[in-house]
Amino acid sequence: MPHSGTVRMLLDGMYYSRAHRLLSPVSRGFGSFLMLHHVRPQVSARGFAPHAGLEITPEFLDEVITFVRGRGIEIVSFEEGVERIRSHRSDKAFAVITLDDGYLDNYEHAWPIFQKHNCPFTVFIASDITDGKCELWWQVIGEAIEKGSRLQTEVAGETLDLPVETDKQKQEAFLQLYKLVRWGLDEQAQRKWTRRFAEKHDIDWAARCREQAMTWDQVREINEDPLCTIGAHTVHHYSVGRLSEDDAYLEMFLSKGRLAEELGETPKFFCYPYGDEISAGVRDFALAEKAGFEAAVTTRKGMIYRDHADHLLALPRVSINGDYQEIRYLDVLMSGLPFMLANRFKTVNAA
């Protein structure tokens, strides 16, 4: 993945050259699904902030909604977005706003912004997170590095012994450990390692999860709002593409059943955790359909085109990334040009 500074430079180049405006009639498609995770106030004087890309401020969410509507794009519910894709309805551009995982800040900080703007939104719930028993491994390793001066651990057959005194050292150590935990361990081994690592560093991983997640009562409350759609996001927040076929199917099917049990209605839509090409592929798209979902979103980057009517279980999204909280960057991204270039001018990336 390119460094965020490089990405900003490329986006600035498109913005100030006006290339995104010139080519947007070809690249923008007729819709988009926007992806968020955390919406919470900015912590002042932050140095080491490994999860900054997953966080935007309530103020920026307010700006995003205003900007999107100011461009003549209608923000619609997930169901309405899917119906427009099915029917090839392109008389007016649309956007769907989605939030992954079901964090408490979605309830406390994002929901009031959506209510202020009378703006539809979708929250994807991983039931283990809501239950307060998901090992949020990326946050555990970030906390351990933040409070230490040296990182010493073994993971995926490698031994790390790294200084983590400066913000730069902490960030470099985080990226190195993140890659090993994310890709060097299978999903179940990853969680077992996280528990041992958390215990070694005196981190109560379950408490951290409970602190950050909406409760089921809060999920039920937000679900009562007609603006809100609740979708499924697996049970354990596993990368389904890295599971066996049977286990991947169960993650989808059981998460759907759990939400039906808690909310009294069966979710129609699904979101693949992590959602990249390795985490969600053709096999998994078929499994989501088998599990009874009508549509699903990935983290593959792109806009919505007519051909997506044949790929409703593999919809791309536009990440509203905390590293790029500037409207000019959103302007470029919503043109679709960066994604069309990255996808080599293919409108659909579902293989």
Q: What distinguishing features does this structure have?
A:
alpha/beta; about 350 residues; two-stranded parallel sheet; globular; single chain; 15 helices
What does this structure look like?
By secondary structure, the protein is α/β, with parallel strands linked by helices. It contains 15 helices and 12 strands. The chain has helices at residues 4-17, 19-27, 58-70, 78-87, 104-117, 127-130, 137-147, 167-184, 187-200, 205-212, 216-223, 245-263, 282-290, 327-334, 337-342, and strands at residues 31-36, 38-39, 55-56, 74-75, 94-101, 121-125, 150-155, 158-163, 228-232, 269-271, 295-301, 315-319. The strands form 3 sheets. Strands 1, 4, 5, 6, 9, 10, 11 and 12 form an 8-stranded parallel β-sheet that branches. The protein starts with a helix and ends in a 9-residue tail after the last helix. The relative contact order is 0.16.
Short note summarizing the structure:
The protein is 47% helix and 16% strand.
List the helices and strands and how they pair.
Elements: H1 4-17, H2 19-27, E1 31-36, E2 38-39, E3 55-56, H3 58-70, E4 74-75, H4 78-87, E5 94-101, H5 104-117, E6 121-125, H6 127-130, H7 137-147, E7 150-155, E8 158-163, H8 167-184, H9 187-200, H10 205-212, H11 216-223, E9 228-232, H12 245-263, E10 269-271, H13 282-290, E11 295-301, E12 315-319, H14 327-334, H15 337-342
Parallel strand pairs: 1-5, 1-12, 2-3, 4-5, 5-6, 6-9, 10-11, 11-12
Antiparallel strand pairs: 7-8
Helix pairs in contact: 1-14, 3-5, 7-8, 7-9, 12-13
